[in-house]
Amino acid sequence: MSVRVNIDTAALRGMAYRPGSPLVTGLHRKVRLVETRAKQLAPVDTGRLRSSIHTQGPTAGPTGARFEVVAPVAYAMWVHKGWREYRRGSGPIVRARAGARPFLAEALRQVFT
User: Fold this and answer.
1) What is the pTM assigned to this prediction?
2) Cα(first)–Cα(last) distance of the chain, in Å?
3) What is the pLDDT along the chain (113 residues), one digit of tens a residue?
């Protein structure tokens, strides 16, 4: 016995790009879960970092619909990677290692594993 499967790659590609398709809708749900979890994990001082986290997309990427969870405040990368900058007196800016708080990477890991 044998089974032959033909895949309509054009139709599959169309599902990956079409905003209302089940594939894109399901991915959007997961991305929103990543956004929610990142907001829960983000450290809070003033709340500006947490409130800046949002989802962008879908946009057409080279392989289908693309979503991004972003934290556009200027210091988000420093908090995420654990670096801080400071100046000693009038000397040069120094980068020092601080406690990393990888809230976006951790949210992604928690939702997709």
Assistant:
1) 0.77
2) 37
3) 556 777 787 887 777 777 788 888 898 999 999 999 999 999 999 999 999 999 998 887 777 788 999 999 988 988 888 876 666 677 776 666 778 899 999 999 999 98
Under DSSP, is residue 45 helix (H, G, I), strand (E, B) or coil? Answer: coil
CA-CA-CA-CA torsion sign (66, 67, 73, 77): negative
* C-alpha torsion sign, points 31, 36, 37, 42: positive
Residue closest to 72 by CA, chosen among 48, 96, 95 = 48
Residue 105: which residues within 8 A CB-CB, separation 6 or more? 80
Single-letter code of the amino acid located at 6: N
